[in-house]
Amino acid sequence: MAAKRIGILTGGGDVPGLNAVIKTVVYRASEIGAEVVGIRRGWEGLTHVDLDDPASRSRYILPLNRINTRTIDRTGGTYLHTSRTNPAKMKKLPPVCAGGDFPKLEATKKGVTSVVYDVTAQVLKNVGKVGLDYLVAIGGDDTLSYAARLDKEGVKVISIPKTMDNDVRNTEYCIGFSTAITRAMDAIDRQRTTVGSHERIGIFRVFGRDAGYTALYTAYVSSLRCAIPEYKFNLPQMIELLVQDKKANPSNYSLVVLSEGAQWEGYEMREYGEADAFGHRKKANVGEDLSDEIKKATGQETVVSDLTYELRSGSPDFVDKLVASTFASMAMDCIEKGEHGRMTAINQGCYAIVPIPDPKLGPRTVDVKGMYNTERYRPDYANKLGLPIFLTRA
User: Fold this and answer.
1) Terminal Cα distance for the chain, rounded
2) Rounded to an integer, what is the distance from CA 387 to the centroid of its chain?
3) Number of neighbours of residue 318 by Cβ within 10 angstroms
4) Do 170 and 29 belong to one domain?
5) Is 381 exposed, middle or buried (0-12, 13-18, 19+ CB in 10 A)?
6) 5 phi/psi in degrees, rounded to 5
7) How many Cβ atoms sit within 10 Å of the Cβ of residue 350?
8) CB of 271 closer than 8 Å to CB of 282
């Protein structure tokens, strides 16, 4: 047997399906005589925990078994809780690290330089003290970027990709994506009655800081115009298309869905608030800005709806529960074989085991030429024969 004690954590934003992963890992581990230890609040659980303090240990370290995980897959969110902690770039040292000698780094973001700390040595110390033979890290490109680092530092890591943005490299699918699209489709269909009743242009904003998969696939199944971060659209052309759609609709309304990172030619995205541990600040609502432009250009009234956090709430749909459970079993297969530095994935429409993505490559993005009609600002529906079920290749 390759492992006697397995750690598991969830990092970044929550998505439906995480609890199915946790439960399946616990159940599979019990079958091979391995113990599972939950690390609470993502990477924070390994940076902030004081293992000599019972209260701190209880806050961050949670032994998992078939009893306390028996029903968790019936709900969304994450049983282990989460955070956006980046141990390699901490703005201040955790209390347990006070007085320690940790590397200081200068991080520059848009011309602003700040000092951050790399507390990886503390993470490695805690992994050793907890006695972890393996660590299963579930997250998006930010969380998995540190998972890759930790594996290189000697911790045996297996990663599982999750994000509504579906933008982790080396896989065509990430847990949470199907439920997000289903939620978006349902919300838009419900709001058609209001937008139509008032004869307006409906503008929907969804997640997608760097990649437009959520907006593109929502548009695909809802027959909408869309805007994605990978392509700056022409504002007058978009407005004209929406006005034409409205006139052609017997109910006299039209709809468009925007990624949060969508932009038009000449538009400068505004950000606000403090950057998170991975350097991301919140983006101003591009939907509101587009609404202002439509009103100025045409006098048309709009309805703006921000669907972002709505899409990550609630229980997983069938696809996410199936993929989550399968990814968890695949991770346990890797552990039983003694493999590490690997990630569960879907490639060419089939389940696969791949390397943890290289953080230097950044997120996976939409193939504009093959997936997006840049003249009509719609998904490209043609030439799909032979493609995998999710219409894209990793």
Assistant:
1) 32
2) 24
3) 10
4) yes
5) exposed
6) -135, 125
7) 10
8) yes
Q: Which two tokens stand for residue 343?
A: 């990630």
The answer to whether the CB of 213 falls within 8 A of the CB of 207 is no
Domain enclosing residue 189, as ranges: 179-313+367-379
Instruction: For residue range 165-179, list pLDDT tens digits in order.
Output: 999 999 999 999 999
Q: Please state, rounded to an integer, the average pLDDT across all residues of the chain.
A: 94
Task: Say yes or no: 309 and 320 in one domain.
Answer: no
Over the stretch 198-243, which tens digit does the pLDDT of each residue have?
999 999 999 999 999 999 999 999 999 999 999 999 999 999 999 9
Is there a contact between 115 and 324 (Cβ–Cβ < 8 Å)?
no
**Choice among 165, 210, 320, 380 that is catalytic:** 165
Per-residue confidence (pLDDT) for residue 308, from 0 to 100: 85
pTM: 0.93
Quick check: is 165 catalytic? yes
Return the closest-CA partner of residue 129 out of 36, 64, 37, 51. 51
How many structural domains is the chain composed of? 2
Of 256, 249, 246, 260, which is closest to residue 213 (Cα–Cα)? 260
Question: Per-residue pLDDT tens for 81-101?
Answer: 999 999 999 989 999 999 899
